[in-house]
Amino acid sequence: xxxxxxxxxxxxxxxxxxxxxxxxxxxxxxxxxxxxxxxxxxxxxxxxxxxxxxxxxxxxxxxxxxxxxxxxxxxxxxxxxxxxxxxxxxxxxxxxxxxxxxxxxxxxxxxxxxxxxxxxxxxxxxxxxxxxxxxxxxxxxxxxxxxxxxxxxxxxxxxxxxxxxxxxxxxxxxxxxxxxxxxxxxxxxxxxxxxxxxxxxxxxxxxxxxxxxxxxxxxxxxxxxxxxxxxxxxxxxxxxxxxxxxxxxxxxxxxxxxxxxxxxxxxxxxxxxxxxxxxxxxxxxxxxxxxxxxxxxxxxxxxxxxxxxxxxxxxxxxxxxxxxxxxxxxxxxxxxxxxxxxxxxxxxxxxxxxxxxxxxxxxxxxxxxxxxxxxxxxxxxxxxxxxxxxxxxxxxxxxxxxxxxxxxxxxxxxxxxxxxxxxxxxxxxxxxxxxxxxxxxxxxxxxxxxxxxxxxxxxxxxxxxxxxxxxxxxxxxxxxxxxxxxxxxxxxxxxxxxxxxxxxxxxxx
Length: 509
Hints:
By secondary structure, the protein is α/β, with parallel strands linked by helices. The chain contains 19 helices and 13 strands. The protein has 3 domains: 10-203, NAD(P)-binding Rossmann-like Domain (Rossmann fold); 207-461, N-(1-d-carboxylethyl)-l-norvaline Dehydrogenase, domain 2; 468-508, Single alpha-helices involved in coiled-coils or other helix-helix interfaces (Up-down Bundle).
C-alpha cells in the first residue's frame, strides 16, 4: 500500500466505525498510526478522511496490507490497538500477529466489548507471545472521535506505556464542576481538565466495569422509554410535546447524554408530511449481550440488580412483536382516562421525580455489583475514580455522576449508594411523587418494569424485616433446608420435623 519511511507510534487493527474514529482521535493528538483492516476500502477511507480533516500533506495515518507489514512499520517495542468484534475475531487477530512475528515485550490492546472472563483467559494464553492489555471504550462513534471514556486494565507495566496516549485521547471534565470540556470538531485538542481514563485493575477488571456500565445504560434507557410511553399513551402527548418535556428535564437533575439524545430522536421528522421518525421505528429492541451479562453476574454473585434485569427483559419482550399484537386483541386493560391540564402538569412532575429516583437506584445496583465483584475476584477498585471516568465521553454520562464521585470520596468503603447522605436525602425528598407515578402507571395499564422495580428495590433496602422468614419456613417444610433464629446466635441452624405430629424443633449442627 502506502510507501512509508518513518516508523509509527501505534499499530491499529480494525477500522470499523469505532476503530476509524479512534484512529482519527489519535492522529489529532499527535500520534502516527499504521492501520490495517481486512477490508482495504476501510483503510483507504480512514486515510482519506484524515488528510481531508488535517489539511496537511504529511500522512498521520498510513495503510498496511498485512500483519507482517504492520509490525515492520512500528517503533519497537510495538504497541498495537485492536478494534474488532468480541469473541473469536480477537483470538484470530492474536494468532495472526503471532504468525507475523510479534515479540513478548510488544503490547496488544483489546478495545472491544469482550466478556471479562475471556480477557482473563487470553492474558494467560498469550503471556509468552506478547502482553495482552484490555481497555473498554464507551461513547459510541462520537466519543471515539472526540474523546471517549476509557476503562483500561491488565499489566501495570503496559499501563505506564499506554497512559499518556489514553489520557490524551480521552474525554476531559472540569475538575471543579465535573462538567465535560467540549471537543466537537476535527483538530481540536483538549489538554486541560481531568481525563476520563484511569487504570482499573488486573486483567478483566476493565471489561467487567464496562459490562456494568452497559448494564446501567440498559436500565437508564429503559427508564426514559417508560416515561416516554406514559406521556404518549397515558397523557396522549405527541413526540414534539414529549421532546419539550424531556428538554426541560434535561436542564435539571436529569441532565444526561441519554436524555439529550432522546430529545433529538423525538424531534426528528422525515418525509414530505414531516412524520416523526420515532413513530415509524419498529418497536423491537436489539441487544448485544452486555446487559444480559450484567444481570447474569448479579445472579451469580447474589447481589440484586432488578432494574438492570428488568431492562433486559423489556428488550426481550419487545422482540415478540407478533405475539404482542395478537395478545393486544385478546387481553383487556383499564379504560382510557382523561386528564385536566393541571392533572397533566402534576403527572409530569411526578414522573420527573420517578425517573430521578429510579436512575439513582439503577446506579446503586451497578456499583454494589462491582463492589461484590471486587471482593470475589480480589480486585481493588476505586469507585470514585470509576464515577469520574463516566462523567464525560461515555453513554451514561450524567450530571449526578459528580455526586456519585463525591459520595465515594467521602466514604471509599460505602456499601451502597443509597446509604450516602446526599442520595438518601434525595430519595426521601422525591419518593412520594415516585410512588404516585408508579401507581398511575398501574392504573393506566402501562408497563414500567424498570421504574417500578427500582421502587421495590428501594423499599426492600429500607425494610429491616423482609418476608424471607416465611420463605425459609416454607423451604424447611418441603426440603428440610433449615433456618436460623433471631433469638439465637448467628450460624445456629434449626429444623422442624414437619412430618411428625409433634413437629419437634431441633438444632442442627
